[in-house]
Amino acid sequence: MKKTENQLLVIFGASGDLTARKLVPALYNLYVEGHLPDNFVVLGASRSNLTDNQFRDRIVYNSNYLKERLAKKSKEHVDNFAKLFFYQDLGDSYDSFYGKLAKRIADLDQKYRTDGNQIYYLSTPPQLYETIAARLAEQNLNLQFEGWRRLLIEKPFGTSLETAKDLNVGLQNYFEEPQIFRIDHYLGKETVQNLLVTRFANSIFEPLWNRNYVHHVEITNAESVGVEKRGGYYDKSGALRDMFQNHLLQIVSLVVMEPPIGDAPEEIRNEKVKALKSLRIMKDDKTLFDHTIRAQYMSSTIDGKKVNGYREEDGVDPDSKTETYAAIKFFVDNWRWRDVPFYVRTAKRMPTKVTEVVIHFKKPHHQIFQDEQMGEKANKLVIRIQPNEGILVKFGVKVPGQGFKVERANLDFYYSDLVETHVMEAYERLLLDAMQGDATLYARADEVEAAWEFVDPILQYWNTGKDVRMYGYSAGVWGPENADDLIEGVGFWRNPGDNLTDDPGFCVIC
Ligand SMILES: NC(=O)C1=CN([C@@H]2O[C@H](COP(=O)(O)OP(=O)(O)OC[C@H]3O[C@@H](n4cnc5c(N)ncnc54)[C@H](OP(=O)(O)O)[C@@H]3O)[C@@H](O)[C@H]2O)C=CC1
Ligand SMILES: O=C1O[C@H](COP(=O)(O)O)[C@@H](O)[C@H](O)[C@H]1O
């Protein structure tokens, strides 16, 4: 096990949802699994007026997110975990009180011997990221004399190419790029990382992973929930910014990239950037019109219950033009992928929650068996990111009996079969990596900018193009019918079920 050095973690926005829902539970898992260093403390910071004990009550003792896990534990076990947490009130803004904060950090560092190593986790509204970095620098908290200093930034990282560039420059005024860790929680998912292993630790897939054998690539990210309580944020964001620019393009980069020369963070990140830079940017209105679809969910009844349409959700403008569904077709301009279409879609209020990558292989180039549906039975590799994580290969077998009738069979592997292995949750993996200084699973500045470069023209076209349509789809179906047009030339969307082996066949979108 890699050693984690003594350190102090400062969380800005510590009174917020992410801290309680994801960060503290992730820290708890690290605590239980023995991954935390001997000397380790967490200092929560935000404007809310809380004492250390009130903060501990809120995020540990009274936490809904830890309740089940703590229920069977001894008081001593829970107290020892709670004692790791402290709280610093930042007054009424994130622009002052940094002298006090610096003093508190120095005191805790000395008392708990955290060796001057500090992580600053920014879990606040994004407009505060640069201000916080600047104020930390004013107190010399960015300087690495006696220990190291790292800055962790939550998404969203900018809202356009221009704002992402500005934010990169803004942060780099105060912190060096190797100190900056930009979170994309999809990279913390084991199955996303497994894309690298599937491709580069096996000799059976990689030789086929190119335009000679791959017919098209399909990536689906579907959520059954709507915007829940985040309507205010989501209405300014939309599916393209919220999921596609970051999480889905990260997955795309892992599918598209060339083999790195080793597993060092910079080797992998260099290849991912090259992959993102090779995505063909859509420039003309015709391509943008033909290759992109956006839509919004409309009210409907699911399992006998009425479900709000997007425009009826709290915090959403009743005339909103924000998409909750985005489907994009694109090409990759490099030697490996030339002319292979990629189809990527993401949406809320779909029939189920699922994320998967499907590599559709070409038919055998000479057809020996006279099976009319042979085309629909071409090989597929399905990489299920969530849920029921696993890998499925679909291949043709002979149906017993006379003649050569071909049917599809499955070869499947489920992560859950690896019973002894504890699969770390995304935030747990990412926090531990940052604590150990491993940036492999964090997005680099040029990576984020390359992703925005691809997305920006689509957003601009959607905002200003005169022919752009906003389709509707009833909550609980697989998006608008018009999304069929996008993929029509190659088949139909694979609308998967809950299980990896559910075989939806080639169903037409509802
Ligand atoms: N929640 C989630 O699931 C996810 C969140 N994120 C990102 O993480 C960050 C934090 O999100 P989340 O915890 O959900 O947000 P919350 O609104 O729940 O919490 C943010 C915290 O920041 C503080 N804050 C400071 N200034 C403001 C302000 N002007 N308006 C609102 N809050 C302010 C608040 O604490 P106080 O008032 O005490 O200062 C608040 O507790 C955001 O950047 C978000 O985009 C990313 C992925 C998922
Ligand atoms: O970043 C985000 O991700 C979640 C989906 O994450 P998952 O791990 O549950 O797949 C999404 O609901 C949210 O809108 C988005 O901001």
UniProtKB/TrEMBL annotation:
Protein family according to the UniProt entry: Belongs to the glucose-6-phosphate dehydrogenase family.
Binding site for NADP(+): R47, K155
Pathway membership: Carbohydrate degradation; pentose phosphate pathway; D-ribulose 5-phosphate from D-glucose 6-phosphate (oxidative stage): step 1/3
Residues annotated for substrate binding in this entry: H185, K189, E223, D242, K348, K353
HAMAP family (UniProt xref): G6PD
One example GO MF annotation: glucose-6-phosphate dehydrogenase activity
Keywords, alphabetical: Carbohydrate metabolism, Glucose metabolism, NADP, Oxidoreductase
Known EC number: 1.1.1.49
NADP as UniProt keyword: yes
One Pfam family named in its UniProt record: G6PD_C
InterPro entries according to UniProt: G6P_DH, G6P_DH_AS, G6P_DH_C, G6P_DH_NAD-bd, NAD(P)-bd_dom_sf
Database matches in Gene3D superfamilies: Dihydrodipicolinate Reductase, domain 2, NAD(P)-binding Rossmann-like Domain
Protein name: Glucose-6-phosphate 1-dehydrogenase
Primary role: Catalyzes the oxidation of glucose 6-phosphate to 6-phosphogluconolactone.
Reactions it catalyzes: D-glucose 6-phosphate + NADP(+) = 6-phospho-D-glucono-1,5-lactone + NADPH + H(+)
Domain spans labelled Glucose-6-phosphate dehydrogenase NAD-binding: 10-194
Catalytic machinery residues: H247
Domain of life: Bacteria
Source species of the chain: Croceivirga thetidis
UniProt keyword annotation of Repeat present: no
Domain Glucose-6-phosphate dehydrogenase C-terminal: 196-491
Matching PROSITE patterns: G6P_DEHYDROGENASE
